[in-house]
Amino acid sequence: KAGVTQTPRYLIKTRGQQVTLSCSPISGHRSVSWYQQTPGQGLQFLFEYFSETQRNKGNFPGRFSGRQFSNSRSEMNVSTLELGDSALYLCASSLGNQRYFGPGTRLTVT
Amino acid sequence: AQRVTQPEKLLSVFKGAPVELKCNYSYSGSPELFWYVQYSRQRLQLLLRHISRESIKGFTADLNKGETSFHLKKPFAQEEDSAMYYCALNMNYGGSQGNLIFGKGTKLSVKP
Asked: Could B96 and A42 be called an inter-chain contact, meaning their C-beta atoms sit closer than 8 Å?
């Protein structure tokens, strides 16, 4: 069974730009959640989607948004990038009590 | 406010020694707690859940509601246990598991 995949794996953007990250969950998993990981703040919850609906949202500004498609694939978008958005963005898909994380997308904002 | 605290950033032990990674939480409801592990160059993965009351790779963790703790223990550490360990809290007990609150993590280094 293929694991959670995230694309791209690495990304370099300039301040003020926007970025879209993609996550493909494990087949059959309908829940996808996103986390931001930074050295200073650690792992922080961004949002969770289930069957194309946002079910939970973390404490991030409105520049961070996401969506989920009918095939459960999810995207997250960050607009007007700031230096502080540089981080590893992790996606996780869940089925019941099992949650599996992807390898992450390393975003660097210059 | 809900919070997970892992007081040690780094824990270094010798092979064969007991290891205890500390985790304390702050939450007024019924917590569901997890330990996640990230080995070098690997993905974050679930190690164990408190409601399963299982032992994985020799690790156990007991939820102590009185002390609001969920410490991870192993009687005899192995070199392959060297990794980053995260304690996490799910506030929606038995429900949605998307919203996990993670501690900052403890890096365990097991020396030969």
From this structure: no
